[in-house]
Prior knowledge:
Helices cover about 20% and strands about 35% of the residues.
Amino acid sequence: VTGCKVQPFIGTMSDIQDAIIKYYGPSQESVEKIEAMPPQAPVKAIDAGDKKGVEKRRFIRLSANLSFHYAFQEEYKKAESKNISAIGVLFKSENIIPLWTFLIIKIRLPQQKAPIKVVGQVVRIDSMPDKTFDVAVHLTHASAKEREAINQYVLDNLHTPGHEEV
Length: 166
């Protein structure tokens, strides 16, 4: 109709929503949702060496050594979590994984019969003294059921020996 050539692109739902807000502004519905949200928990401060400031996490992170597999460069690699929350996982890797890389993650929670399969995006890489890397992954594609299962695992193990809130 316009005579223009159509060029298709693929993006995550959050990327598309961010672009819509950037170019058209927030919708009345999104403003109403934010206004209806319950007040946030009291602000916590963190002081972890070179990382100081206001704690911005909305979900509890649990120190947990859970074995899992992730797909990277067309092969599954085994890893162990350092900590986990309903929206992310931190693990140690022998390989550097580029920022913003998407990983397919299969993680087996003790209370689950089958592993949970989610997609996450690498949001932070820290080089460690032992020549390994701490990889922080934000779970970008996980169903509400999968997030609830992870969150329930975190809550159930908060006061279990060997686990602590981080």
